[in-house]
Amino acid sequence: MIPVELMCRRCGKEVETIEHVLLYCSFASAAWFGSRYSFLVPQSNNLKFHQWLQSLSFIPLVSKAESRLVFSYAAFMCWRLRMARNNLYFENIDCLPSDVITRVERSWIEFHGALSRPLGKPVMADSFAVSHSTVITTWSLPLTGFIKLNGDAAASDILGTQGLSFILRYSVGSPLRAVS
Ligand SMILES: [Zn+2]
Question: Would residue 170 count as lying in a domain?
Fold first, then answer.
């Protein structure tokens, strides 16, 4: 019989389910919260992944274009979180939630840049920028030379649990550290 490791190798606190890897692991929830949309993963961890994804549709968005941006961003988050998990398990390569965010940003901007340019004109990924007119702006850059701290906390009387998340960002917007 082959021994199977059931517990999450990253936090060692929970059985590794899809929901744990993509949402409830402290590593994942820090990455979601530290992302440009500051997604808050509920601490009650009784939602299935598809239910949580459906809950995103209740975010007040002004257009279908914005909705597509949010859902595509969530898809890239899932992909990069899954890759981070596989790199840890199969390559023994660890990373930080901020590394996941950086990779998501790069892939997501490249993806939307590719959608908006004519076919047959390859351009370097870093030269793309998603139009700010179609991106929900919920956060502003700190002044040059400053670091911005954003945080949030939640508590459940029913479960008797509390959660705290924060992220530090440089003045260019890149994450310095995210903790949940
Ligand atoms: Zn975990």
Answer: no
**How many Å apart are CA 25 and CA 13, to the nearest integer?**
9
Q: What is the pTM of this model?
A: 0.64
Q: Mind listing the pLDDT tens digit for each residue in 5-23?
A: 789 999 999 999 999 999 9
Q: Is 177 inside any structural domain?
A: no
Q: Among residues 173, 160, 180, 159, which one has the least CA distance to residue 46?
A: 159
- Ligand 1 ion: Cβ-proximal residues, 5 Å cutoff: 8, 10-11, 25
98 within a domain of the structure (yes/no):
yes
Asked whether residue 46 is domain-assigned, the answer is yes
Our count of domains for the chain comes to: 1
- Say how many Å lie between the CA of residue 107 and the centre of ligand 1: 24
Q: How many CB atoms lie within 10 A of CB 36?
A: 20
Q: What is the pLDDT of residues 23-60, one digit of tens each?
A: 999 999 999 999 998 888 887 778 888 888 888 766 66
